[in-house]
């Protein structure tokens, strides 16, 4: 099962800088690996991340994502220059067919380009619309 997962920093604070992204992304990969999942692609901008993850069908997805967020926040907060780094409580997850994974990989890789013209809110609504889904407005609060 392939999922395109999106979540932001708490209150969309623009704190996800290029020097802390590798820490977060490496932790995401480690947590996924320990849970027999694999990160296919991961990227983000200053206030949110996109991850394409391959899960086994019997996986507790919410627990893995919760652990990714918890452990990455903990490790980033240990760094004295980022003592207040937190992820938002919610996340969005969209199912991806294996045949469309390459499109999602390209989309994730080009996050910096997308966000020159598209806000986080508009982006998530666009993704949801492409998947014939909707985003609960609580997600944005």
Overview of the molecule:
The chain has 141 residues and is α+β, with helices and mostly antiparallel strands. Helix content is 40%, strand content 19%. The longest helix is centred in the middle third of the chain and has 18 residues, at 61-78. The protein is globular, with a radius of gyration of 14 Å. The mean pLDDT is 89.
Please give a quick description of this structure.
The protein has 141 residues and is an alpha+beta fold. It has helices spanning 21-34, 61-78, 101-109, 111-114, 120-130, and strands at residues 2-8, 38-45, 48-54, 92-96.
Question: Which descriptors apply to this entry?
Answer:
141 residues; alpha+beta; four-stranded antiparallel beta sheet
Topology summary:
Blueprint: E1 2-8, H1 21-34, E2 38-45, E3 48-54, H2 61-78, E4 92-96, H3 101-109, H4 111-114, H5 120-130
Antiparallel strand pairs: 1-3, 1-4, 2-3
Helix pairs in contact: 1-2
| Radius of gyration of CA atoms, rounded to a whole number | 14 Å
The total strand number stands at: 4
What is the H-and-E element order? EHEEHEHHH
Mean pLDDT level:
89
Number of helices: 5
Strand order of the largest sheet: 2-3-1-4
Q: Which percent range describes the beta-strand content?
A: 15-25%
Shape: globular
Biggest pleated-sheet summary: 4 strands, antiparallel
Between the first and last Cα atoms, what is the distance in angstroms? 29 Å
Name the structural class: alpha+beta
| Percent of residues in helices | 25-40%
Uncertain regions spanning at least 5 consecutive residues: none
